[in-house]
Design goal:
single chain; 306 residues; mainly alpha; ABC transporter involved in vitamin B12 uptake, BtuC; 2 domains; 14 helices; 77% helix; globular; membrane; ABC_transptr_permease_BtuC; ABC_BtuC-like; transmembrane helix; transmembrane transporter activity
Amino acid sequence: ADVWRSIVTHLGAGPLLGVDPVPLLQDGTVWQLRLPRVLTAAAVGAGLALCGVVMQSLTRNPLADPYLLGLSSGASLGAVLVLVLGATVLLPVAAFVGAVAALAAALLLAGALGALTPTRTVLAGLAVSQLCAAVTSFVIFWSATGDSYREILSWLMGSVAGATWSSVAIAGGAVLVLGTVLASTGSVLDAFTFGDTAAAALGLAVNRTRWLLLVGVALLTGALVSVSGSIGFVGLILPHAVRLVTGARHRLLLPLSALCGATFLVWADTAARTVFAPRELPVGIVTAAIGAPVFAVVLWRGRRSL
């Protein structure tokens, strides 16, 4: 009831609907803490699930996720650098720049090896990811102490506990713009499912389209990681789980994956906040704890097609 009253009041519709204002303390809790956190979790979950579907289709790799091209490691490196330097206010910007830089390095390396094939893309992403992870570990070992170490650890595990309306604007805006574009590429991803040759035969500019989609995934993932840290398994397991219900047609798979991703991460964050109250877990721990057994079940159910 307090949630509804707070929202209606802030929208200016309280007098029209005959809703009394919420007491100041409850209103602050709902409007400044709970609502931004829920909306950020929903946007991040939807975006990661969408990116997971696109990455699995482009690379034809069932184990692909949004972090495949070193995006998570690049974002982590950028975030760790500013946290160690004490410039916390720059964290979203640094994480986004790190993710985009990692993408650029991975695509340049893959392009230097020849045509941008799925195998070269995956291997280049793995190389960049390992390099960024090594540098991140060195920075943490050499420089992180006390509060900065705790902030780094929390960020690396993934959390939306500190979400604000700025976080909602970044994650929600990215999903609204880039997510909508990716969700409309169902027929293109269907063509990629049958391989590059078949896609080219259908009139698709394979390399150009793959580059554009990878850049779109990277920009969206970078925006999401910049506000939530690295939250695993959402972009990996949910596309598989939804695919068991909808089949391989991307026109239905993309929007349903986004919806399931949003719902899943909101409930996972609720569990992270309440299970060990008053202490909170990073939501990345909860998604991994739920995701690992669920993924095992998905693999078991689809074992005949593996």
